[in-house]
Amino acid sequence: xxxxxxxxxxxxxxxEIATTFNxxxxxxxxxxxxxxxxxxxxxxxxxxxxxxxxxxxxxxxSQEGMPVExxxxxxxxxxxxxxxxxxxINDLLVLVTMDKxxxxxxxEEVDMNQLVESVLKRLKPxxxxxxxxxxxxxxxxVRCQGxxxxxxxxxxxxxxxxxxxxxxxxxxxxxxxxxxKNLYITVQDTGEGIPEESIDKVFQRFYRxxxxxxxxxxxxxxxxxxxxxxxxxxxGTIKCESQLHEGTTFSIxxxxxxxxxx
Length: 262
Ligand code: ADP
Known about the structure:
Catalytic activity: ATP + protein L-histidine = ADP + protein N-phospho-L-histidine
Keywords: Kinase, Membrane, Phosphoprotein, Transferase, Transmembrane, Transmembrane helix, Two-component regulatory system
Helix content: 55-70%
EC number: 2.7.13.3
Strand order of the largest sheet: 2-4-5-7-6
GO molecular function, one term: phosphorelay sensor kinase activity
Order of helices and strands: HHEHEEHEEHHHEEE
Bound molecules: adenosine-5'-diphosphate
Structural class: alpha+beta
Radius of gyration: 24 Å
Number of strands: 8
Largest sheet: 5 strands, mixed
GO cellular component, one term: plasma membrane
Number of helices: 7
Distance between the termini: 68 Å
């Protein structure tokens, strides 16, 4: 009887170990697939500017007596592609460093009102180019424990998108609030919006709703994955809501255990 009992328990334990092992193998397989997909995407994205540069350089070489104006235009295009390649590599480096571990966060006390204001001030000239008005509504003074540089970069990315994907004469409304648990930032624009089926994908690496449009505006498709990563490292959340042709709202929430209100 005792042997039977042990037998049953033994079987059960073996099954449990087998299930855990299975889960681990599946997770590793999934991670490996993601890694391969990422490497494929990186190669593709890095090759695109290179191909353009090659075509441009070859055109320059093959045409004799080309007017100086045209010559300059081609060279400017080549320079833009170099800038683009640089931007992709920089964004990739940021992502890869963030992937390593969480210790890169250097927590300090951050004055959120000041942070938002300085980000908006820096981006005002960009907004002015499209006659976009930025309104900032702050409901209270909020201080938080966070990595100021990374949070500032994250907000810059979201507001930059709100400008890039907005219409001429559009509007951007930024709000900052907090309750006893969290701090909340929303960035709402009156731009082109995002199709419903793409909303969940915008945080994926290299995902762009409209590759051509995003390319024209200098996008790499990495910005929002960096933003999401930053927010997650601060144990917060970011979500996106959008109405096509009406506008998009990004809502950031950071938990209170790293936040103290002033
Ligand atoms: P990108 O460098 O292309 O801007 P992001 O990761 O920042 O990359 O954004 C991914 C995609 O999400 C963009 O290419 C764009 O299609 C879409 N997107 C992001 N923000 C907005 C916005 N405010 N309005 C409309 N579309 C947006």
